[in-house]
Amino acid sequence: MRLVLLGPPGVGKGTQAVRLSKRFDVPHISTGDMFREALAKKTKIGLSAKEYIACGKLVPNEITIGLVRDRLQNPDCAKGFILDGFPRDVAQAEALDEILKTLGVPLDAAVYIDAGPDILVKRISGRRVCEGCGATYHISFSPPPEDGKCQRCGGRIYQRGDDREETVRERLKVYKASTEPVVDYYKGFGILKAVDGEKDANEVLEIIISMIQGRQ
Ligand code: ADP
Ligand code: AMP
Q1: 214 pLDDT band (50/70/90 cuts)?
Q2: What SS3 state is found at 58?
Q3: Is the pLDDT at 172 greater than 90, yes or no?
Q4: Domain spans, the chain
Q5: Which CATH class is domain 2-114+169-197?
Q6: pLDDT at residue 215 above 80?
Q7: Residue 31: which residues within 8 A CB-CB, separation 6 or more?
Q8: Average confidence score pLDDT of the chain
Q9: pLDDT at residue 208 is higher than 80
Q10: Pocket (CB within 6 angstroms of ligand 1)
């Protein structure tokens, strides 16, 4: 299964990617997580991405596309992958097509998850993330353990710096200008599957699975 998950920040791409990755036994590839891990390790890529992430802008394509190209060549992607947060503009979508052409594999679907602005703001402002494993919680919808430690790995749970109001506004602007055109890009190839992301996370998952298996 080779999937791209598209949609605005906070809509639930990561939440669904984790579940789809388990269901289809393929890796979950989140460029946001890769940048945050690189930053925590203070690698060259992490340090180059730092300022862009902090102000809600896209990390330049010459960094991001290379990162994804290397990751998709890893043997664990032979069975497929769930891409979350990439592509984020049309140039990245075209680069992904090239990478997959070279690997000789097609994309099965681009799943577009959407929700209205009030829901996005509620989800982003309540999001909490584990520093150790990247697990995502929400203060109301999936509350973290009371001791503030991740139930999966025991890591510290924190609020992402770029989930603060000012940066969120910029990220939503960048999404509208750069990422929304990617929805039409995949529509043009006939592989776009749209799902209402306002529903409960379990329901969203089942709808996605039905759609990609051609039952809806
Ligand atoms: P994205 O990866 O698209 O930025 P996330 O998957 O991190 O979004 O979800 C953002 C926040 O919303 C998280 O705190 C997550 O727990 C919560 N969330 C995700 N999907 C749902 C849903 N369907 N209903 C309620 N809360 C959700
Ligand atoms: P995310 O975890 O997907 O919300 O991404 C967090 C931040 O990482 C974004 O606001 C960008 O600064 C950066 N980022 C993640 N994915 C990409 C991408 N495909 N292209 C450029 N920047 C990205």
Answers
A1: confident
A2: coil
A3: yes
A4: 2-114+169-197
A5: alpha beta
A6: no
A7: 59, 64, 67, 68, 84, 85, 86, 88
A8: 96
A9: yes
A10: 7, 9-15, 123, 126-127, 136-138, 141-142, 200-201, 204
73 contact partners, CB below 8 Å, separation of at least 6: 103
The bound ligand whose nearest atom lies closest to the alpha carbon of 19 is 1
Split at pLDDT 50, 70, 90, the class of 168 is very high
Model-level pTM? 0.96
Ligand 2 centroid, distance to 53 Cα (angstroms): 7
Burial of 4 (0-12, 13-18, 19+ CB in 10 A): buried
Residue type, 138: H
For residue 30, the cross-strand partners are: 84
Give the residue, by CA position, lying nearest to ligand 1 atom 13: 127
Nearest-atom number in ligand 2 for the CA of 53 is 12
Distance 160 CA to ligand 1 centre (A): 13
Active site residues: 13, 88, 127, 160, 171
Can you tell me the mean pLDDT for 138-158? Answer: 94
β-pairing verdict for 81-84 and 109-114: unpaired
Q: Hey, is 192 helix, strand or coil?
A: strand
Q: Is the pLDDT of residue 216 over 80?
A: no
